[in-house]
Structure formats: structure tokens, C-alpha cells
């Protein structure tokens, strides 16, 4: 009877695994299929990072005369009295970040409030450079960089979480790579992308990563604060459900077989 019980349990486990894998096909696990079609119709597109409210920017202004440019930027820990001599004891300090407010503006030293919402970093640099001409004897070098470009990846990936990158141009595939890629139990043709625009409105977009023309999608490049959700396959959900309840069912099965064994013994 013990031999029969082992065979019975083995059959149940085998059936469960076969049922889970039968719903997952090789083709559904491939990215960017039919690439030859994409290569024939693809249109080149360039992506530029755009500044949005709640972004944090680091802005560096430099000239041939450090004392002349010192009033236009400060470093963390720098007192106002040090602004005219910003090299003293501050070489290793980090630049103070500028928070873009809900109106899309930053409060820049001397210049006051500057509207930067929707600008690329290059456009922001040009704006500051132009406005500084009235205060300097030469055209300054201005560098603007995003300090909090982050995104989140949730669901059926190897390492779900929130990630920060210094790269201001990132595709959805690169974002998934940061999270360790999708697992074999992920739905690749129904990936959800949640995005918030400059007005705070949130929308969810569906991406089919099995199609090669995903590279032509306006959502192929992610933006700061995007959330990518990868759905699990039905097989994975059933597998998790089975695993969660396996101990209960095995206990119940053992009880049934024990009772059956006892009944057979008593009827002999």
C-alpha cells in the first residue's frame, strides 16, 4: 500500500508540472520576433531626456575666473561666506541639487525663478548661459544633469525594485536588464507601463515585447519615475497556488490512504 501511495503522489506532481509547462510555448518566450519586418520599416528616432516637476538637477557653472562664477552655484555644506572662495576646503563636496517645483521652475542664485519644465538638459544649459551673460565678462560653461532619474520594475522579473541611473536615455529592455530580466514565467506580450506626465496625470500603456516594432513605440524609451509591471503566466499562478496548498493536500491524501488501509485491513 505504501508503494501505491508513492506512485499516486508521483502521478499528481507530474501532472501538475506538465499542466504548467504545457501552457508556455517557446515562441511566447522570445523578444522582438520577426525582426526582418522591423528592419525593413523601422524609422530612426532620437530620444531626449525632458525635465519634469520633482526632478532634481545638478548645475555647474564655471569660468576662467572661479571667483566670478562662485555666486551662481553652491556645494553641500558650503556657507554663504565661502561663496566667493568656493575652492577652499570644498573640492570634494557635492553640488547642491535644484528641485524642480510643481510649476516646472528652479530657484537659481542671482537669476531667480527659471522655467525649465519640458526642456532638455541642453536647452536648460543654454537658458542659464544666456541669462548669465549680463553678470559675467565671458560666456560660462554650464552643465546640467539629472540627479534622480529612477524607475521601478515589478512583477515576474529576477530582481524587482526601484533603480536609479545616471543614464538619461534608457530603453524598456535596458530597464528590465537592470532588474535581472524577465523569468520564463512572464507574459511578454502584455507588459504594463505606468507613466505620470508633467501635470501629475497617470496612464497605463501596454507593451508587446515579442514584436520587433516595439522599438518604434513612443514608450520604448522610459522616462523618470516610470513603473514597469510584468505579469506572471497562468502556469506560474497555478504553480504557486499548488505549492502553497501542497502540504495541505499531501496531508489530506496521507489521511485518506491511511483510512483506506485501515478499512481494508479490518475487512480482511
Q: Tell me, what is the CATH class of the largest domain?
A: Alpha Beta
Distance between the termini: 15 Å
CATH-wise, what's the superfamily of the largest domain?
Outer membrane lipoprotein wza domain like
CATH topology of the largest domain: Outer membrane lipoprotein wza fold like
Strand order of the largest sheet: 7-6-10-8-9
Helix share, percent: 25-40%
* CATH architectural label of the largest domain: Roll
Q: In words, what does this structure look like?
A:
The protein is α+β, with helices and mostly antiparallel strands. It has three domains: 2-18 and 234-267, no CATH class; 27-47 and 149-230, Outer membrane lipoprotein wza fold like, CATH 3.10.560.10; 56-146, wza like domain (wza like fold, 2-Layer Sandwich). It contains six helices and ten strands, in the order ααβαβββαβββαβββα. It has a five-stranded mixed beta sheet, covered by helices on one side. A three-stranded antiparallel beta sheet has the order 2-1-5, with helices on one face. It has a two-stranded antiparallel sheet with strand order 3-4. Strand 6 (150-155) and strand 7 (161-164) form a beta hairpin. The longest helix is centred in the C-terminal third of the chain and has 34 residues, at 234-267. The radius of gyration is 29 Å and the shape is elongated. The protein starts with a helix and ends with a helix.
Amino acid at each position: 500500500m505504501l508503494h501505491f501511495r508513492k506512485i499516486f503522489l508521483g502521478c499528481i506532481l507530474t501532472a501538475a508540472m506538465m499542466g504548467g509547462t504545457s501552457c508556455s510555448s517557446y515562441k511566447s518566450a522570445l523578444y522582438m520576433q520577426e525582426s526582418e519586418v522591423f528592419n525593413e520599416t523601422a524609422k530612426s528616432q532620437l530620444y531626449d531626456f525632458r525635465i519634469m516637476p520633482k526632478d532634481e538637477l545638478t548645475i555647474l557653472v564655471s569660468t576662467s575666473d572661479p571667483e566670478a562664477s562662485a555666486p551662481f552655484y553652491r556645494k553641500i555644506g558650503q556657507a554663504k561666506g565661502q561663496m566667493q572662495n568656493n575652492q577652499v576646503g570644498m573640492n570634494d563636496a557635492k553640488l547642491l541639487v535644484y528641485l524642480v517645483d510643481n510649476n516646472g521652475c528652479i530657484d537659481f542664485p542671482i537669476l531667480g525663478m527659471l522655467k525649465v519644465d519640458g526642456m532638455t538638459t541642453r536647452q536648460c544649459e543654454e537658458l542659464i548661459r544666456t541669462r548669465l551673460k549680463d553678470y559675467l565678462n565671458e560666456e560660462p560653461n554650464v552643465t546640467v544633469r539629472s540627479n534622480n532619474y529612477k524607475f521601478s520594475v515589478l512583477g515576474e522579473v529576477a530582481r524587482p525594485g526601484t533603480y536609479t541611473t545616471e543614464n538619461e536615455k534608457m530603453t524598456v529592455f535596458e530597464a528590465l536588464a537592470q532588474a535581472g530580466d524577465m523569468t520564463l514565467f512572464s507574459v511578454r506580450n502584455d507588459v504594463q507601463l505606468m507613466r505620470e506626465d508633467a501635470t501629475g496625470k497617470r496612464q497605463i500603456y501596454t507593451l508587446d515585447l515579442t514584436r520587433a516594432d516595439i522599438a518604434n513605440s513612443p514608450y520604448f524609451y522610459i522616462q523618470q519615475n516610470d513603473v514597469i509591471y510584468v505579469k506572471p503566466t497562468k502556469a506560474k499562478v497555478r504553480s504557486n497556488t499548488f505549492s502553497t496548498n501542497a502540504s495541505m493536500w499531501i496531508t489530506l491524501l496521507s489521511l485518506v490512504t491511511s483510512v483506506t488501509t485501515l478499512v481494508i485491513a479490518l475487512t480482511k
